[in-house]
UniProtKB/TrEMBL annotation, chain A:
<feature type="repeat" description="WD">
    <location>
        <begin position="224"/>
        <end position="265"/>
    </location>
</feature>
<dbReference type="InterPro" id="IPR001632">
    <property type="entry name" value="WD40_G-protein_beta-like"/>
</dbReference>
<dbReference type="InterPro" id="IPR015943">
    <property type="entry name" value="WD40/YVTN_repeat-like_dom_sf"/>
</dbReference>
<dbReference type="GO" id="GO:0007165">
    <property type="term" value="P:signal transduction"/>
</dbReference>
<keyword id="KW-0677">Repeat</keyword>
<keyword id="KW-0807">Transducer</keyword>
<feature type="repeat" description="WD">
    <location>
        <begin position="55"/>
        <end position="96"/>
    </location>
</feature>
<dbReference type="Pfam" id="PF25391">
    <property type="entry name" value="WD40_Gbeta"/>
</dbReference>
<keyword id="KW-0175">Coiled coil</keyword>
TrEMBL record, chain B:
<dbReference type="Pfam" id="PF00631">
    <property type="entry name" value="G-gamma"/>
</dbReference>
<dbReference type="GO" id="GO:0007186">
    <property type="term" value="P:G protein-coupled receptor signaling pathway"/>
</dbReference>
<protein>
    <recommendedName>
        <fullName>Guanine nucleotide-binding protein subunit gamma</fullName>
    </recommendedName>
</protein>
<keyword id="KW-0472">Membrane</keyword>
<keyword id="KW-0449">Lipoprotein</keyword>
<dbReference type="InterPro" id="IPR001770">
    <property type="entry name" value="G-protein_gamma"/>
</dbReference>
<dbReference type="InterPro" id="IPR036284">
    <property type="entry name" value="GGL_sf"/>
</dbReference>
<dbReference type="InterPro" id="IPR015898">
    <property type="entry name" value="G-protein_gamma-like_dom"/>
</dbReference>
<keyword id="KW-0488">Methylation</keyword>
Length: 342, 68
């Protein structure tokens, strides 16, 4: 017992030492700020986007939406127990997928456009083929011991999930089995984003930390701190070298992977609502962040200033997305509507 | 939780911290400059920044025209 206690004490000391070492290393490279680098960049001015369409169809709160790679189709999930696939050009509903469990929290479109996946309080991720005559359940991925908060397809054969059981998981859709389980968070995993080269992904969790993972090795490579509450949303900056997070602490932050730290924060004393979702414009210059205050606020990612707002929802904005071609923004809300802006 | 699992958790934590400590870090000024550069280089193609021409807006209702 005494030797165990001695080892525990020495390990704790080692941990503290390593943490101090990491902080010192981060400080050593912290030689400037984003805002000073941004000094020379031109202002974007006031960003005023117009509401182009209000998509009506869901009968209850919308929790999630995801664009297809064709930048035209989009899938939304509502606790009315349905997934709706929309043609955003016409505003028409193309497919309706009835869900076994209405408590959906996340939805995703496969890059091929053939499949969609959803999940929530049922702790499962269900994959549907929407190209068949009527939507067919392809797989029910059942192994998480907590709610499904987020899912993203790598292809028609692999999907990544983030769960309230504090783990993320890579699944093989051909066998329906878990391939790799990513453990390291100590709070519910709320959101994940895949890197463009699909070799890494970032996750945000209720432990207020964001983590970078090696997708194939299953290891956590870097941990980013700074938020003081749950991270609800996470997305890569288009260059792939940074990512943005949105949190219940009412702020968004940009972290750079190569300096291993936060490089700029986005917060305003007048904004007292949690961030639920976020999306970036194609150049990375604009951040569209959905808040509990019923608005989607637009931030200049380089200067850290609020440059616009998308107002129109009558309840919390729960999801935000920019299509691959960057032609617009979609916001989804608890008011049961999806809105398209550009 | 047994003391054994506490110990193994602690060992794992030390290994994880060692991994994270070994990351090679670049200066924030360099990282910031490169992020800026990316924004500037791609600004012209960013429809949400520069605007979408009325005629080719995929989300906008096409106006009907009468050919006289």
């Amino acid at each position: 017992m005494a030797s165990e206690k001695a080892e525990m004490d020495s390990l704790k000391k080692e941990c503290d030492g390593l943490r101090t070492q990491i902080e010192a290393a981060r400080k050593a490279v912290n030689d400037g700020s984003m805002s000073s680098a941004a000094g020379s960049a031109t202002d974007v001015g006031r960003v005023q986007l117009k509401l182009r369409k209000s998509l009506k169809g869901h009968l209850a709160k919308i929790y999630s939406m995801h664009w297809a790679t064709d930048s035209r189709s989009m899938v939304s999930a509502s606790q009315d127990g349905k997934l709706l696939v929309w043609d955003t050009f016409s505003g028409n509903k193309m497919v309706a997928v009835p869900l076994k469990s209405a408590w959906v929290m996340s939805v995703a479109f496969a890059p091929s456009g053939n499949l969609v996946a959803s999940g929530g309080l049922d702790n499962m991720c269900t994959v549907y083929n929407i190209k068949s005559a009527s939507p067919k359940t392809l797989r029910e991925l059942d192994a998480h011991t907590g709610y499904l908060a987020c899912c993203r397809f790598l292809s028609d054969t692999e999907i990544l999930t983030a769960s309230g059981d504090t783990t993320c998981c890579l699944w093989d859709l051909e066998t329906g089995k878990q391939k790799i389980i990513f453990t390291n968070h100590i709070g519910d995993c709320m959101s994940l984003a895949l890197s463009q080269d699909e070799r890494t992904f970032v996750s945000g969790a209720c432990d207020s930390l964001a983590k970078l993972w090696d997708l194939r090795e299953g290891t956590c490579k870097q941990t980013f701190s700074g938020h003081t509450s749950d991270i609800n949303a996470i997305n890569f900056f288009p260059s792939g070298n940074a990512f943005i997070t949105g949190s219940d602490d009412c702020s968004c932050k940009m972290y750079d992977l190569r300096s291993d730290q936060e490089v700029i924060g986005y917060q305003d004393t007048s904004l007292n609502a949690g961030v639920t979702s976020l999306a970036l414009s194609n150049s990375g210059r604009l951040i569209f962040a959905g808040y509990d205050d019923f608005n989607c606020h637009i931030w200049d990612s380089m200067k850290g200033e609020k440059v616009g707002v998308l107002s129109g929802h009558d309840n919390r904005v729960s999801c935000t997305g920019v299509p691959g071609d960057g032609m617009g923004v979609c916001t989804g809300s608890w008011d049961s509507f999806l809105k398209l802006w550009n | 939780m047994t003391s054994n699992s506490n110990l193994s958790n602690m060992r794992r934590l030390v290994e994880q911290l060692k991994l994270e400590a070994s990351v090679e870090r670049i200066k924030v000024s360099q990282a910031a400059a490169e992020l800026q550069q990316f924004c500037l280089q791609n600004a012209a193609k960013d429809a949400l920044l520069v605007g979408v021409p009325t005629g080719s807006n995929p989300f906008r209702e096409p106006r009907s025209c009468a050919v006289v």
